[in-house]
Amino acid sequence: MTDFVFIDSGVGGIPYMTALLEKEPGASCVYVADNKNFPYGEKSHDEVVKCVTAVVEKICKRFDPAVIVLACNTISVNALEVLRKKFPQVQFVGTVPAIKLAATVSQKKRIGLIASKSTCENPYNIELKNQFADDCELIMRPDAALISFIEEKGFSATETELEEAVRPAIDFFCRQNCDVIILGCTHFLNIKDVFEKVAHGPHAEGPIQIVDSVDGVVRQMIKVRALRSYEALRQAQGPQGAQTPQPAQLYITSPDSLLEQEKYKSICAHFDISFGGNI
Questions:
Q1: Among 41, 44, 139, 269, which one has the highest count of C-beta atoms within 10 angstroms of its own C-beta?
Q2: How does pLDDT run across 201-251, given as a tens digit for each residue?
Q3: Active site residue 51
Q4: Residues 148/152/155/158 CA torsion (nearest 10 deg)
Q5: Is residue 241 classed exposed, middle or buried when 0-12, 13-18 and 19+ CB atoms within 10 A define those classes?
Q6: In this predicted model, what pLDDT tens digit does every residue of 13-58 receive, in sequence order?
Q7: 262 φ/ψ angles, rounded to the nearest 5 degrees
Q8: Active-site residue identified among 51, 72, 136, 174
Q9: How many CB atoms lie within 10 A of CB 78?
Q10: Which of 29, 51, 178, 185 is catalytic?
């Protein structure tokens, strides 16, 4: 059995896995980048459900996961409940925009959300706002171009190129007088430091905080895994301190392509992840 399997359309969800491994270094983890269907954020609800259901079927057969982490806001808001009903033997943890957190730190009560088109258009965001941020204005910016840039060049671009890629979004939220920006697509987490650097730059009118859901999601992963008879599994394997942690592995779904494989092998080297090839 694999403790955790993470799913995204590309590299977006990797920070969730690395954050989990910092707290649980002995956990067995697999990351699946459904790059064959990238980007999810430009697909319809039905297309997202169809794509991720097919991937989860393969994951269940190959890895026998205890927990599947939908490390993608678009997948989570479109398919989480469908997957829970279709695969009751697996625990699912979703990722959704950190609207509740943003509302607690915003002084101006003007919150920015940068995400995929599908996430921005999903009614679930309005439900979150009404429940946790009813005194705030939520300004949304779908940014497919920036998501694609991070997927294709996020780990090879220069610092200047990254800053220039992020600057239009920061400028947009500055004009909207936002003092908090939610990273509502997991791809953005890979360059959170760049968002923060540009947001704190001289052009910004006052401090702008960048928030995400990583800490909360990691806590939920550990909680759900524990409830899913994790302790019984560890007892069967022996004391945790006696185990040899297995390296995290990354798989892709695209047909064999040397160019794609080289790109993901380079990303794996960046995160010290083992490249597993195609699933």
A1: 41
A2: 876 566 799 999 999 999 999 999 887 754 545 555 554 444 556 789 999
A3: no
A4: -80
A5: exposed
A6: 999 999 999 999 999 999 999 999 999 999 999 999 999 999 999 9
A7: -65, -40
A8: 72
A9: 27
A10: 185
